[in-house]
Amino acid sequence: MQIAIVLYDRFTALDAVGPYETLGRVPGAETVFVAEQAGPVRNDSGNLALTADRALADVPHPDIIVVPGGPGPLPLAADGPLLTWLRTADATSTWTTSVCTGSLLLAAAGLLEGRRATSHWLALEELKRHGAEPTGERVVTDGKYVTAAGVSSGIDMGLTLLGRIAGDDHARLVQLATEYDPQPPYDAGSPAKAPAHLVELLRSDLDLTLT
């Protein structure tokens, strides 16, 4: 089984690394980072780079596609090499997945038309404009498409799909090995729980990055 995690300029690091540390532990699987060209790719803050082992053209038929989000997806949503590759790779993939605003790329490629999907809460309306049926759920499975909400939910998506592929006990083992036992110091992880002034503050700041 081959798992391809897509990288592009200004991706969000945890969106890629969360699934890498969870879903990437499918027994016997090969996990590769891919980008339009092989080599280092900078994250959204510009101070971290992950290395794409292979170019998109070198990985035409992965079994699992993982598309991370970031402030970069909307400029990339115009037709180009990445969307073309997504359509081609999706035609033969077993699972096509995304984290955060990565679902906007899947939707822009026409892969989520009429399907239930999720994204970062600030991007749900944009997801709808691309033809998907947005939901605020943390992880959404519709057929072979598995989408995750904002950033940290990529860990949940990875464990969810790992359980489907390798069994619940293996997923639990990976959860235990990574000690993924969230006990956050604050209960402000969603717009439904966070203080209203913080929701508005983030909305005013991040609207600029999602357009």
UniProtKB/TrEMBL annotation:
- Has UniProt tagged this entry with the keyword Hydrolase? yes
- Keyword field contains Kinase: no
Coiled-coil residues: none
Query: Which residue intervals define the domain DJ-1/PfpI in the entry?
Result: 2-162
- Give UniProt keywords alphabetically: Hydrolase, Protease
| InterPro entries reported in the protein's UniProt record | Class_I_gatase-like, DJ-1/PfpI, INH-QAR
Q: Name one GO molecular function term.
A: peptidase activity
What is the designated name of this protein? Putative intracellular protease/amidase
Which organism is the protein's source? Streptomyces paradoxus
